[in-house]
Amino acid sequence: SLLHDELAGDEVLVVSNREPYIHTKTAKGIEVRRPASGLVTAVEPVMRACSGTWIAHGAGTADRETVDENDRVQVPPKNPAYTLRRVWLSKEEEQGYYYGFANEGLWPLCHIAHVRPVFRSSDWEEYVKVNQRFADAVVAEANTEDPVVLVQDYHFALLPRMVREKLPKATIIMFWHIPWPNPESFGICPWREEILEGLLGNTLLGFHTPFHCKNFLETVDRYLETRIEHEASTISYGGDLTQVEPYPISIAWPEEPYPETIEESRESVRKELGLPRDHLMAIGVDRLDYTKGILERLQAVERMLELHPSMAGRFTMVQIAAPSRTSLEEYQNLEARVRQLAQRINSRFGASGIDPIMLKIEHYESDQVNRYYRAADICVVTSLHDGMNLVAKEFIASREDERGVLILSQFTGAARELHEALIINPYHVEQGADALYRALTMPEMEQRERMRSMRALVRDFNVYRWAGRMLLDAARLRRRERVTAKIH
Ligand code: G6P
């Protein structure tokens, strides 16, 4: 209802690369999956609450079979609440725009995880083309001249300006789900001016943290001729005004009861994994991505076992790693290195047939992930750099028993909010090892105190608040625009 008040009957269009429901052909028929994506985790509940149309790339092998003649399908499949409009990309478009410019260029550029960005002119051309195709889809789907367009992430840096050209009265809100780097780092991008100009087509541009906003303002200041009002956090460029604000993203607080109690999950998960009933367990849940610090995490486990040999055979780190962007070499290399390291640690410390590392390189649906969160003693997030990281918040939300310890990288947006986590520098293996041991031996009272205050924060600052605040700010800008239009 919060969202309905903000929207007051406005038309809402969301654009993202990743779709919230992927239909795939399997031996059992057509299956629907929710992809592993922080973006989808956050935006999907918001869309359910405000209906509208979500435009995204149709990536599933059965996607074409589930849409109508306008490429639309009502979702969620079991309980339709909004429209998903799919855009089809050719192999070359997907290669150049998604794998190439977005994920070999912008992704490492913005994360600074010491993987060198790759910039190819041919990728850039596809990126421009695909941005235009999605912008055209937005214009085609719009039924009014002033819709609220919610643009998601680094796949669409150029789209805001493209939409602005066709729908000058639209309120265009963009959220950048990944970090924004400092001006020097961003400056190596051969198309830095074009990207910044594209982004300044937005009415409102959101980042996770004030730090990312500051980096963005400084980047614009360095490379474009604009007028920046630092106090108001606005940028004027040409005739356009863009407001830049931090909106820390979050999750929907769980409302439905879980199918299993925490006790039941503790037992059934250990049984499933072949672990003893009282076994100590840490959980990691990530896409298999080099920004997530999975190698560093395993190294910390190894070091902890060196320092505390009595933990061998009593403790296991379960790492769920959803395969991601697997046609890119960096991701294939990472998988090989993660497997190797896990094997090495297991051969060193695998006592009485129990491995200290259990790698699950596969996709788990969210109810399975929840069971693992609830079964664990510790959740480990060691991103080398991460816009927010919603795994940390999901873990907290799942623990109504107020037990369990969160170990959290200081390089996540989440670390700016979740001060009661054990905050570590993932590059510092020794510190990671100490945090693991401290978590394993933390008194119940202390766990409870930390968990309780983190739960209160995540419950209050949920994803509806995230969206609500953006829409509220946008509504204010919209009114201002209408008023100034009358004056002139
Ligand atoms: C990050 C990005 C999202 C993306 C997700 C999964 O969270 O910010 O935009 O959807 O990773 O990556 P993928 O390439 O599979 O969509």
From TrEMBL:
Alphabetically ordered keywords of this record: Membrane, Transmembrane, Transmembrane helix
Keyword Transmembrane: yes
Keyword Zinc: no
Annotated family: Belongs to the glycosyltransferase 20 family.
Protein name: Trehalose 6-phosphate synthase
Residues of the full protein shown: 254 to 741 of 752
